[in-house]
Specification:
alpha+beta, about 55% helix, about 450 residues, seven-stranded mixed β-sheet, two-stranded parallel sheet
């Protein structure tokens, strides 16, 4: 599956583009807050936040798999800035608390950066710390599809997104120190001058522009390095690429799975990981079920029960698809001491132990597939289709094994249960949020029918 391990220039461009859109939106907000009447600053911020939301939503509709965590963070920062600003001005207007004029948009001067930079710093520090638990990240991780599915590309994205978040946290932290330090030490609130405006407004803008230039140079150099090491697929190669269908089989007997414990990790040379030994490819777009079964029967030398797991087509490698199948054998592992392909039977409890405590022992793609399998089965056991718990015992956590997989009639291709795992009755204010989502969905359907 070496083609899946490669990166396209479009994917690198999207890493930079999403960062740029988020940062440019903040620059626009800061600039317009300076040019327009001060009291419009929260309105401008909310309009910019709406623009980011539209961008994120359009990307979701178009099934763009590029990471949206930076625009997502900027969206929350802009909304947070608006609410903090409005809250401070309400306290001032109602005479509840005396507020410095630099924080009040009814007075002159009003300095947005004194609020915006700390809010952005708090948001991006939170995103950096909680990234692995964010719903927006869990969706990509648990779906296990497209750009985030495979080793080198997923590793590249993870490292770069973490670097972007850390960079923005440091940037907003430094800007907060500079702006607030100047405010307390050098600023005289009798009369604001050009130097004050330079520090309060244009220093932030200049830092953003320099950061953008840095990331543009960073991803261009990264592109050159990857191209030199033959890890880049050009657009011309994509157009000329022959259609390929990759097949992965999980051979199961009882509660054991047949695995190879000596698979070389493509991301870490000389490191051995556990993975299924049954993987192959066909130079064609699509393959019949009969052919799929003939292949695995030849690879195992045993007749079994074939069942489709799930499959995905790469978003960039448009002619490349990866399909997973289960292949169930009757009896017990002792009945099949040897198969045509080298490997060994491993109890699924041991695989689950590695998955939970030492996932580095498993191949990345096996971790991804196990995550999807476990999420769907356990969610269906815990919740109904409306997202409410089946058991009144709130902290009831079921378990599963390969016997459950074989007996299950669930469609593992469908993302329905993954969505329920992310949004269910355990979510705070679930009933209200569910009603609001349904309300927005109904409005959208009506607008589409009218249009």
């Amino acid at each position: 599956m070496e083609d899946f391990e490669k990166v396209t220039s479009i994917q690198l461009y999207k890493l930079w583009k999403n960062l740029t859109i988020g940062m440019v939106t903040v620059i626009v907000m800061m600039t317009m807050s300076k040019l327009l009447p001060y009291f419009l600053s929260p309105v401008v911020a909310l309009v910019c936040a709406a623009g980011l939301y539209t961008f994120i939503y359009d990307s979701k509709v178009k099934r763009d798999t590029s990471c949206m965590i930076i625009p997502f963070g900027m969206l929350y920062a802009l909304v947070g800035y608006s609410f903090v600003t409005i809250f401070l001005n309400v306290l001032y207007a109602w005479g509840i608390k005396s507020i410095a004029h630099e924080f009040v948009f009814f007075t002159n001067p009003f300095v947005p950066s004194l609020i915006m930079n700390p809010v952005c710093f708090i948001v991006f520090v939170y995103l950096t710390i909680m990234r692995k638990k964010l719903p927006i990240c869990n969706v990509c991780r648990m779906r296990g599809d497209k750009d985030y599915e495979h080793g080198s590309l997923r590793k590249l994205f993870n490292e770069e997104i973490h670097f972007q978040l850390r960079n923005l946290s440091i940037l907003f932290g430094l800007l907060t120190v500079i702006v607030w330090g100047y405010y307390f030490i050098f600023y005289v609130n009798i009369n604001i001058n050009n130097r004050d405006w330079y520090v309060f407004t244009w220093v932030t803008t200049i830092c953003f522009v320099l950061d953008e230039i840095y990331f543009g140079a960073r991803y261009y150099n990264l592109y050159l390095d990857l191209r030199e090491s033959n890890e880049i697929i050009t657009q011309e190669e994509l157009q000329d690429m022959t259609a390929k269908t990759y097949l992965r089989y999980y051979v199961i007997c009882g509660n054991s799975m047949y695995v190879d414990t000596h698979v070389i990790d493509v991301n870490t040379p000389y490191k051995e990981v556990i993975d299924t030994p049954f993987a192959t490819k066909r130079t064609m777009n699509g393959i019949s079920v009969d052919e799929v079964k003939r292949i695995i029967k030849r690879m195992t030398g045993v007749d079994g029960d074939l069942r489709f797991f799930y499959g995905r087509k790469s978003s960039e490698l448009t002619n490349q698809s990866l399909l997973r199948y289960f292949y169930f054998l009757e009896g017990t592992p002792d009945d099949y001491p040897e198969l045509n392909t080298d490997g060994e039977w491993m109890d699924f409890d041991k695989i689950k132990y590695y998955y939970s405590n030492n996932p580095g022992k498993l191949a990345d793609i096996m971790v991804t597939d196990t995550t999807r399998l476990a999420t769907i089965i356990l969610t269906e056991k815990t919740f109904d289709e409306r997202g409410y718990r089946k058991s009144k015992i709130k902290f009831y956590n079921p378990s599963f094994n390969l016997h459950d997989v074989r007996k299950s009639e669930l469609d593992f291709q469908d993302d329905k249960w993954i969505q329920i795992s992310l949004f269910n009755s355990d979510t705070p204010l679930y009933g209200l949020k569910k009603w609001w989502r349904e309300f927005l969905g109904d409005r959208k359907k009506k607008s589409n029918s009218i249009g």
